[in-house]
Amino acid sequence: MKAHIRFIYTSFDRILLRGYLPNLFVEGSIINLLRNLGFSKHTNGVLKTLTDQLNSHIKKAADNLGVEVHWWSSAESAKYRSNIDFVEERYSKELQELSVKSKVICIIKSLENVRTFANKEIKTKSGKVFTKMYPCNKFVSQYYIYIYDQDLGLC
């Protein structure tokens, strides 16, 4: 087995945790989740309400923690190879002076093209209108929360 190993990791340079709820990758599961949250319909307006609640929650959490929410624009994309390069440069002094065990450093908000769901109204031949949920790729807000962990460093 050792003959197949070409290098060894001695430390982490970054860790990425992505949260996925596997059962929410199909339309029916999204609709069930919305029903469990108290929504009787699954319109785009309902999805917008949840999006607004998430955005509000992130802003409140950032305000409570005293951290900035940075907008990741094309200017940052042109200047930095990755989000973490930006964090390391922008917060280098703060990272060197950390006296706490663990801390949220900043939050980066970007617009990214991802697989998600949307709704459209369909009219049947008999004239009945119903809402159909379908998977699609759309640009949505993504949040990257950077923390300093006492054991792992910047994550």
Q: What is the share of helical residues?
A: 25-40%
Biggest pleated sheet: 4 strands, mixed
Q: Given the C-alpha coordinates, what overall shape results?
A: elongated
What is the average of the pLDDT values? 85
Q: From the alpha-carbon coordinates, what is the Rg to the nearest angstrom?
A: 21 Å
- Termini gap: 31 Å
User: What count of structural domains?
Assistant: 1
- Stretches where pLDDT is under 50 for at least 5 consecutive residues are none
Walk across the major sheet and give the strand order. 1-2-3-4
Number of H- or I-type helical stretches: 5
General description of the model:
- The protein has a 4-stranded mixed β-sheet with strand order 1-2-3-4, sandwiched between helices.
- The mean pLDDT is 85.
- The chain is built from 5 helices and 4 strands, in the order ααβαααβββ.
- The chain is an alpha+beta fold.
- The protein has one domain.
- 33% of the residues lie in helices and 30% in strands.
